[in-house]
């Protein structure tokens, strides 16, 4: 995972899940959290959309719709997850 991806995951954890860090701190009180399913769903959707946007911007992917066409809130509308078509670059 790139540093940018780690930073994005930490940002999602902090803003959406209210977690201070994703680092293991070897303490039950610090490493285990009570979260609602809607918080987890939102965090997963945000991480998915961040990855989708990064992939759509990559030259490795062709024939995919741009992430912006689905909007950041695709999961709220029960929209289908876009199909990925990966071209062999080798």
Relative strand content:
under 5%
Radius of gyration based on Cα positions: 16 Å
Question: What is the CA–CA distance across the termini?
Answer: 22 Å
Number of strands: 0
Ranges where pLDDT stays below 50 over 5 or more residues in a row are 64-77
Overall mean confidence score, pLDDT? 74
**C-alpha geometry:** flat
Give me the secondary-structure category.
mainly alpha
Q: What percent of residues adopt helix (DSSP H or I)?
A: 40-55%
Major sheet size, sense and barrel closure:
none
Give a brief description.
This protein has 90 residues and is an all-alpha fold.
Description:
The protein has 90 residues and is mainly alpha-helical. Helix 1 (3-15) packs antiparallel against helix 3 (37-57). The chain has a domain at 35-90. The longest helix is centred in the middle third of the chain and has 21 residues, at 37-57. It starts with a helix and ends in a 20-residue tail after the last helix. The radius of gyration is 16 Å and the shape is flat. Helix content is 47%, strand content 0%.
What key attributes describe this structure?
single chain, 90 residues, mainly alpha, 0% strand
